[in-house]
TrEMBL record:
GO terms for molecular function: hydroxymethylglutaryl-CoA synthase activity. Keywords: Acyltransferase, Transferase. Residues 177-248, 264-351 form the Hydroxymethylglutaryl-coenzyme A synthase C-terminal domain. Substrate binds at residue 148. Its EC number is 2.3.3.10. It comes from the Bacteria. Pfam families: HMG_CoA_synt_C (PF08540), HMG_CoA_synt_N (PF01154). Residues 2-164 form the Hydroxymethylglutaryl-coenzyme A synthase N-terminal domain. This is Hydroxymethylglutaryl-CoA synthase.
Length: 388
């Protein structure tokens, strides 16, 4: 029996900034951001969106009533959670009308935990072939105004339904993974912004990828020619390109060009959204599936997941015959088209308007067109509203 991703869906807030505007405001050359970092736009979350609402907004678009009745586990991966005790998965279970006999859990290990959630889902479904597991990877990447990491912020959520005989792709049992205690990026409990040793983190990312790639090759006897495309965690899209370039010399020029072309497809949406931490590799997978028209059923894809701190995993997926039917094909183009551009000063105000630390605060939700929004905090309890 094959197990894998049956459906995927995405959500990101309705505001964005242009990286040329940000470069001008920060006194940088626009090409540093556009080419050197590889980002053109950045999603900006208003106070009315958090990881719970974004996760619910992503998953809601793909779930049928039957799915909601049959889901056995909700696994919520995030590193920008809203509570130290209560899991975001319990909130989304209620918002989405998922049955009360589902297990709910929140996972954390920087950007890596979405992959752990996916593998847990795969293993659960392998043991319980009738089961459906909902995996949500949702985050708001915040480094702070005027910081080196600012150009790599972003926000959004990817939702995946894991089942037997999946529509999109099977998750093959060939993972290699590793962990090492490294201070490249972290966020202390009392801080709403991440602390990062930027260049060190990029070097560790490449080291982990190379070590896992060598281990994967040794364990599976497969090489780059085995794959139609490599999908990467994309904290900024140049990062994946650097890792890919590290291994490209292993294959012919023709294969190198094919892999680079697929890479362009896989970073198309990430360039416009920014880092969404746990969901970034899976947004990149969606981007590949929706933008690479040379993909075919049976193609194998390799995916490299990296989370600072640090943990990495590399595994393969096999595309299924009607993989497009598991995606909402116009979802991302429509979402991007409907977004509103913010000036840098509007973004800076929005950035400062987080509800974290409030005991009582009402938010104006009239400008947020998403189905699920945060309307405020009452007695330290988050108030979630379904708008339509
Ligand atoms: P920086 O120091 O501002 O940038 O920070 P830089 O000086 O290194 O320049 C960046 C690139 O732009 C360079 O290219 C320059 O040459 C180029 P590279 O040498 O790297 O190929 N450049 C130009 N290109 C064209 N025209 C120009 C021009 N000027 C310069 N005019 C840094 C960059 C990424 C360090 C910073 O943004 C940062 O700290 N970001 C956050 C950390 C990060 O994303 N790390 C990635 C690996 S860790 C990870 O993936 C985990 C993470 O997602 C978190 C988690 O796990 O939870 C972050």
């Amino acid at each position: 029996m094959q197990v894998g991703i049956d459906k995927m869906s995405f959500f990101s807030p309705q505001h964005y900034i242009d990286m040329v505007d940000l470069a001008h405001a920060r006194g940088e050359e626009p090409d540093k951001y556009l080419i050197g970092i590889g980002q053109t736009q950045q999603a900006v979350a208003p106070a009315t969106q958090d990881v719970v609402t974004m996760g619910a907004n992503a998953a809601d678009q793909m779930l049928t009533q039957t799915d909601r009745e049959e889901i056995e586990e909700v696994i919520f991966a995030t590193e920008s959670g809203v509570d130290q005790s209560k899991s975001a998965a319990v909130y989304v279970q209620k918002l989405l009308g998922i049955n009360r006999y589902a297990r709910t859990i929140e996972l954390k290990q920087a950007c890596y935990s979405g992959t752990y959630g996916l593998m847990q889902a795969r293993d659960y479904v392998t043991l319980h072939p009738e089961a459906k597991v909902l995996v949500i990877a949702s985050d708001i990447a915040r480094y702070g105004l005027n910081t080196g990491g600012e150009v790599t912020q972003g926000a959004g959520a990817v939702a995946m339904l894991v089942t037997a005989n999946p529509t999109i792709a099977t998750l093959n049992q060939d993972s290699v993974f590793m962990s090492d205690e490294i201070m490249d990026f972290w966020r202390p409990n009392d801080s709403s912004t991440a602390v990062v040793d930027g260049k060190f983190s990029a070097n560790i990312y490449r080291d982990f990828f190379k070590e896992l790639w060598d281990r994967y090759r040794a364990q599976t006897s497969r090489d780059l020619n085995s794959f139609k495309a490599l999908v990467f965690h994309l904290p900024f899209t140049k990062m994946g390109l650097k890792a890919l370039r590290d291994v490209l010399p292993e294959v012919s020029e023709e294969k190198q060009n094919a892999l680079l072309t697929s890479f362009e497809a896989s970073r198309h949406y990430n360039k416009q959204i920014g880092n969404l931490y746990t969901g970034s590799a899976y947004l990149s997978l969606m981007s590949l599936l929706l933008n690479d028209d040379t993909l075919q059923a049976g193609d194998d894809l390799a995916l490299f997941s990296y989370g600072s701190g640090a943990e990495g995993e590399l595994f393969s997926l096999t595309l299924q015959a009607n993989y497009n039917q598991g995606l909402i094909t116009n979802q991302l183009p429509e979402l991007l088209e409907q977004r509103t551009q913010l000036s840098i000063s509007e973004y800076e105000q929005m950035f400062a308007s987080v509800v974290q630390g409030s005991t009582n605060r009402a938010l104006d939700i009239t400008h947020d067109h998403a189905k699920f929004v945060l309307s405020g905090v009452q007695d330290q309890k988050r108030q979630y509203v379904e708008q339509f």
